[in-house]
Design goal:
Layout: H1 2-15, H2 21-70, E1 100-105, E2 108-112, E3 123-125, E4 134-139, E5 144-147
Antiparallel strand pairs: 1-2, 1-4, 2-3, 4-5
């Protein structure tokens, strides 16, 4: 009797070598459904992360300008150049300073008219697609940023909730 039980167990072990084809197909189908459901969400989160990084990088440029201007570091501000290529001078005979702008175009945000000492670079690449070309200009007298872009042009085309204007909405430095 014991021999019969042992022989039966040995036969079952020899026949049960792995998963059946049907079991493998079911598992692969379940995995395909999960990937199909989760992949679009993952892609959306990656894009949001890129947009957040872009907004932070542009805000870093903006804050560097404001800190430099608050420190009254006139040497950091480039002298304006006239149409003749010579330094432009104001009515008082002193060189006029260039306009301070942050231009967002062709996937880059570029700081022009100033080289802050507290910032290693004046241009950052924007990782997210969908930013419109925009220019923000800083008025050091009023400590206000202005733009020529319309309200809907400052939003990211892929995610309208991400708005570059939010970075520039504060007026002046808060102390």
């Amino acid at each position: 009797m014991v021999k019969n039980v042992l022989n039966t167990l040995r036969k079952k072990q020899k026949n049960n070598k792995g998963f059946s084809l049907v079991e493998l197909i079911v598992v692969i189908a379940i995995m395909a459904v999960l990937v199909g459901v989760l992949a679009p969400q993952f892609i959306k989160y990656v894009e949001r992360s890129r947009q957040s990084t872009d907004l932070q990088n542009v805000e870093e440029l903006k804050n560097a300008v404001e800190v430099t201007m608050a420190d009254a570091d006139d040497d950091a501000i480039a002298d304006a150049v006239g149409a003749d290529g010579k330094p432009a001078v104001g009515a008082d005979g002193k060189p006029t300073k260039a306009t301070i702008t942050i231009k967002i175009e062709n996937g880059k945000a570029k700081l022009e008219g100033i080289t802050p000492k507290n910032l290693g670079k004046t241009e950052v690449s924007l990782k997210s697609k969908g930013w419109n070309n925009q220019t923000y200009t800083y008025n050091p007298t009023d400590s206000i940023w202005t733009t020529d872009a319309k309200a809907d042009e400052t939003q990211n085309k892929k995610d309208p909730n991400r708005d570059m204007a939010d970075v520039f909405s504060t007026t002046g430095s808060e102390t």
